[in-house]
Amino acid sequence: MKSTERKKNKRIVKHMKECFRSFHLPVDERKLIQGNSRNVVFTSQLCNDHVCAIVVVMHGRLEGYVGMEVVFHFKVPSERMAEVMQLLNLFNGISPLFRYAICQCCNGVSMHASLFLPDGSFPQDKFKRLIHEMLEDAYISFPLIVEVINGGNPDDLGACFVEGCRDLKEIGKGISNEVAGTILSDMESVLHDLEISIREEDRHDDVLAVYFKGPEQFDFNLCLIMGLLNNRALLVLDLIPSFTIPDEKIALVTESVIRINKNIKFGCMYIDRENKWVKFRIGIMIDNGVLDKMEFRNAVDAMLPAGGGFFSIIKEQLSSNESLEALLAKHLKTGKNCHQQSE
Known about the structure:
The protein is 41% helix and 24% strand. The chain is α+β, with helices and mostly antiparallel strands.
């Protein structure tokens, strides 16, 4: 690694530590393993009347991202696993910046977030906002998960999560209609550069919906829905395949996407139980009313092949008796992807 690159990486980690300390969160490097493969740079802790968790902070230098993993201090008993997974799936459909997952090895629950580094620079305001939202999400979700473990109804407690999120003070000043129009224009220019054309029927107020057909190995099409949450200054990208999940397979696929979420570096898989769709989502923060076009391009360019590959695993699981592990191994071996727009 060159000296200038080393200095830049040290500077990024220094700024990350400063962001954590600005929220009066501890920074601990003592437990780090040199040369760890997970890009861990330090750990922190959440400990208050609602949450008890370790925060693992990562800097993926080669991949160009920073990330956080919040590991809650409880384990899910096997007899309540299905109910907890149902609740976490509800969380994943509500929180655009985070994904909730369960570790197969220890039954521990964690929430994850990542942030793209444009040109290798560190977006400090966005990272602080990510910490802020992480604290608020964890404050609401932690006791609800505990309630489900203790016998609570996941649907009822999922509704409590929705209400808790509504009660939170919105971050920033939101987005005006004029700013939203500029952001949509910037999105279209990026999509044009990616050779993705937008038809008039693809435009719906503050939403763009683009349809794709997959390569020959996929027997389903895709729809990418890109919408602005104006009051939260968020752009949400949802990639959806054309197939639906049968009622009798909902629990199986919910388990699969929760487990997939544990191992991916960006985005979130979840089941839309109302429409019986599996979705792959990425949330992008709008900073000072401006869309980071490089971050948007990176998200679109990465999520199409990744989402297409994940969906192919789920589709195959619906009609086969193969385990998720076997299907994941097959996916990695063949390198399936999808990035062909429909006519």
